[in-house]
Amino acid sequence: MLNLQVIYKPDELPENISQKDLVDFLYTHLESFGDAPSAINKAIDYAFSTEKGKGGFLILAFAEDKLCGVLVMNKTGMEEYIPENILVYIAVEKSMRNMGIGSSILKKAREIADGDIALHIEYDNPARHLYERFGFTSKYAEMRWQKKD
């Protein structure tokens, strides 16, 4: 049986799970589609922020008391011209994929998010099909300019 826990602040984390554990989980299970642990940690810090325009939430998924999925949602603070939320990370333990865990997490996130949700995904990421099934569409192509030192 799957148990989903919504976390809004660090003191709501289960006793046996630290923020570092979540960073490690996401870093491991995002595989080649992830970011550095420092970036993942910043996204979690942002979700836990109480500063105006910041905040968000995490969703932790447990199967038989074992962590098997994590989602990080950040508020953008830019309602009306950019979606109010950005789904920064969602990962399911590799051995438990294709069992509906990602769908359950994403469904819960849509239920509790206040406003629209955006996400960035690489074209070759197999999770793209999950997002499309949930009604996410590709509205823009993201372009980036990187400042060189």
Q: How would you sum up this structure, described in words?
A:
It contains 4 helices and 5 strands, in the order E-H-H-E-E-E-H-E-H. The radius of gyration is 15 Å and the shape is globular. The mean pLDDT is 92. The termini are far apart. The longest helix is centred in the first third of the chain and has 12 residues, at 37-48. Helix 1 (19-29) packs across helix 2 (37-48). The protein has one domain (2-133): Aminopeptidase (3-Layer(aba) Sandwich). A 5-stranded mixed β-sheet has the order 1-2-3-4-5, sandwiched between helices. It is of the alpha+beta class and 149 residues long.
In short:
Helices cover 28% and strands 23% of the residues. It is an alpha+beta fold and 149 residues long.
**Total domains:** 1
User: Major sheet: size, sense and barrel closure?
Assistant: 5 strands, mixed
Average pLDDT level: 92
| Arrangement of strands in the largest sheet | 1-2-3-4-5
Class derived from helix and strand content: alpha+beta
Shape assignment = globular
Span between termini: 50 Å
Pfam families: Acetyltransf_7 (PF13508)
Domain N-acetyltransferase: 11-149
Organism: Cloacimonas acidaminovorans (strain Evry)
Protein name: N-acetyltransferase domain-containing protein
Explain the layout of strands and helices.
Blueprint: E1 2-7, H1 19-29, H2 37-48, E2 56-63, E3 66-75, E4 85-92, H3 101-112, E5 117-119, H4 128-133
Parallel strand pairs: 4-5
Antiparallel strand pairs: 1-2, 2-3, 3-4
Helix pairs in contact: 1-2
